[in-house]
Amino acid sequence: DQQVKQNSPSLSVQEGRISILNCDYTNSMFDYFLWYKKYPAEGPTFLISISSIKDKNEDGRFTVFLNKSAKHLSLHIVPSQPGDSAVYFCAASYYKLSFGAGTTVTVRA
Amino acid sequence: DAGVTQSPTHLIKTRGQQVTLRCSPKSGHDTVSWYQQALGQGPQFIFQYYEEEERQRGNFPDRFSGHQFPNYSSELNVNALLLGDSALYLCASNGGGTSGANVLTFGAGSRLTVL
Q1: Of A88, A78, A73, the residue nearest A32 (C-alpha)
Q2: Interface A:B, Cβ pairs < 8 A
Q3: Could you give the CA distance from residue B43 to residue B110 in angstroms, rounded to a whole number?
Q4: Do B45 and A97 touch (CB under 8 A)?
Q5: B115 vs B110: CA distance, rounded Å
Q6: pLDDT digits (tens, 9 = 90+) for B31-74
Q7: What is the DSSP letter of B71?
């Protein structure tokens, strides 16, 4: 039962432009949402999070938006840099963490 | 400061065998979780250990078992291996107990191949 879905398996963006990653969830009990980033041969690393009581959280170039009524969240990366090329996982928490399948981001020079 | 360390990094087993994977959490962390990541999928929660007890469990059969030691390190055991158990097994640790709001620190994983 896939409760967290990332429907875009890949995203290609030019350096300096905005990257927008999307995530949908089905469980209305989720109360915390996180984004993790993964490079090859490394474990996922925490990027940014948002509580269900908020609709936006910003950290430098990264902003996460939460639309609870639509059960949708998105991650914006502005501006995109070559080092941002990685797999991005959306995760949602209610006692335990559920992950989406990931979106592979490629930033073109 | 060492993060989460896992061993072995790669291993190959045959169907029906048993495997033990090991994890040392990040210094200062007391809670360990295990995840299975199949090819092309996101990590799937197996179970979580805190205070040497299994606190939460995902939808995995009893062939998957674990243990946490007094020094917070942990083992994941899988019995009667199936081809479908081939995956990357990730260990993650956090401080602050079992709250779902805790940020996890992941290890690089153990790549298990079952032939």
Answers
A1: A73
A2: 59
A3: 13
A4: yes
A5: 16
A6: 999 999 999 899 999 999 999 999 999 999 999 999 999 999 99
A7: T
